[in-house]
UniProtKB/TrEMBL annotation:
Highest taxon of the lineage: Bacteria
Entries under Gene3D superfamilies matching the protein: P-loop containing nucleotide triphosphate hydrolases
InterPro entries: AAA+_ATPase, ABC_transporter-like_ATP-bd, ABC_transporter-like_CS, ABC_transpr_LolD-like, MacB-like_ATP-bd, P-loop_NTPase
Domain ABC transporter: 7-226
Record-level Gene Ontology MF annotations: ATP binding
The species this protein was found in: Microbacterium algihabitans
UniProt xrefs under PANTHER family: ABC TRANSPORTER RELATED (PTHR24220:SF685), IMPORT ATP-BINDING PROTEIN (PTHR24220)
SMART domains: AAA
One Pfam family recorded for the sequence: ABC_tran
Keywords recorded for this protein, A-Z: ATP-binding, Nucleotide-binding, Transport
Spans through the membrane: none
Name this protein carries in UniProt: ABC transporter ATP-binding protein
């Protein structure tokens, strides 16, 4: 692994089902993302993008291969260690947003800072900054059910970036955004990549996202084509 690599997966293989019903979601997949690099993972639906991201983030275990974040091997790590890594080092955007329904938009964004026990003043400042950065300043007090899908998606992006992670893993983070808003959100991600040296791995069908990438990695039928 290069000393600059912040995300690395090597030989990842993942099966689902058993016997005759077993399918291969990912087959011997390898890739790396360096600090300060913005990489887009592109492929059709069902190609293995989400599976690769969840394995890279330590949210699932592969049948073979391994994943690293920095110098930490996330494959085989205990849940406590994996959760600590996601809390302290990583931002993750789930395709389904995974917002807490009884919290407001601002409270959802604040969660990573609370988990890191940041002070109240820092939390207020960072949350306000990120809510404004994704264009939701007028919606901070609304709960997810009161927001559109695109607004919920922007809350998820703000939450993933609020603690200035060293790594961002995001699954279709612009899927419900119009082209102008998508461009704004990707500019925000790139700002963190360039300013903070964050490594970003984003799965996306969106040409707006791919056009801004440092590198596009194709995946088809569970196989990565570097």
């Amino acid at each position: 692994m290069s000393g600059d690599d912040m995300i690395r997966v090597a030989g990842l293989t993942r099966f689902f089902g058993r016997g005759a019903a077993r399918t291969t979601a990912l087959s011997d997949a390898s890739l790396s993302v360096a600090a300060g690099e913005f990489v887009v993972l592109r492929g059709p639906s069902g190609s293995g993008k989400t599976t690769l991201l969840t394995l890279a983030a330590g949210l699932d275990e592969p049948d073979a291969g391994e994943a690293w974040i920095g110098d930490v091997r996330v494959t085989g790590a205990g849940e406590a260690d994996a959760a600590r890594l996601r809390r302290e080092v990583m931002g993750y955007v789930d395709q389904e947003f995974a917002l807490v329904p009884f919290l407001t938009a601002a409270e959802n964004v604040e969660l990573p800072l609370r988990l890191r026990e940041a002070g109240a003043r820092e939390r207020r400042a960072r949350v306000a900054e990120m809510i404004d950065a994704v264009g939701l300043g007028d919606h901070a007090a609304q709960r997810p059910e009161e927001l559109s899908g695109g607004q919920q998606q922007r809350v998820a992006v703000a939450r993933a970036l609020v603690h200035r992670p060293r790594v961002l893993v995001a699954d279709e983070p612009t899927a419900q955004l119009d082209s102008g808003t998508a461009a704004s959100v990707i500019s925000l991600v790139i700002e963190h990549v360039r300013r903070d040296g964050m490594a970003a791995l984003i799965a996306s069908h969106d040409a707006i996202v791919a056009d801004r990438a440092d590198r596009v990695v194709e995946i088809h039928d569970g196989r990565v084509r570097a």
